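[stage:ingest] chain + small molecule (uridine-5'-diphosphate)
[stage:ingest] validated
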Amino acid sequence: MSKPAYKRVLLKLSGEALMGDDPYGINRGTIERMVADVAEVAKAGVELAVVIGGGNIFRGVAPGAQGMDRATADYMGMLATVMNALALADAMRHVGVVARVMSAIGIEQVVEPYVRPKALQYLEEGKVVIFAAGTGNPFFTTDTAAALRGSEMSAEIVLKATKVDGVYSADPKKDPDATLYHTISFDEAIAQHLQVMDATAFALCRDQKLPIKVFSITKPGAMMRVIMGEEEGTLVHV
Ligand code: UDP
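[stage:predict] done
[stage:export] tokens:
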């Protein structure tokens, strides 16, 4: 059997990916399917770090947060990611994957704090590490947390799991001529104003020469094809 293309990856899961077709929250079937993919990756011997979003529960700039102090709303968003991380770790436990949640904000009674050497140790031991609470700072996103933790963990690539199957030349919902890029450089993506991740996350990946793979979380087998280095989604390269 062919070997995985990567030894260590950082997987960014948006909170919305957990919703399935529900309007908010965590859809049981969806999280189970996702975790089955994660289990396959872990069993292939790939060290897996996960950054989970919180948009399915709370988004700092959402209408519900209007009038709220931005930083306060953002802390609520970060707490939402902790809930998702707990749900994800629990779903992993059900399928025999050992996971550890580490939070960027201190809530020790619930999850352990993020400590870089400890996270690296868990990865080396074959445990999945789920990073919760984003960067721990308001005014940032979990995409930036993915770029940051991916760099700190020396991951070979950031895998951005989304609802679309990659980066298109235009919005495929609006433009029938939109084409999917299989590969694109950071510079080309900037020149063509393509939104791959938010600007801070994108700049950090580019500076750190950390490639990004955008792929569909809903497409069966896509995550494993990405891991095996097969053609799937869009690779953003240096
Ligand atoms: N957030 C934050 N700092 C971070 C990460 C997240 O303040 O480092 C807040 C922010 O309010 C954001 C929310 O948490 O809207 C949820 O994160 P995000 O929008 O990145 O989640 P996703 O879109 O991936 O579900």
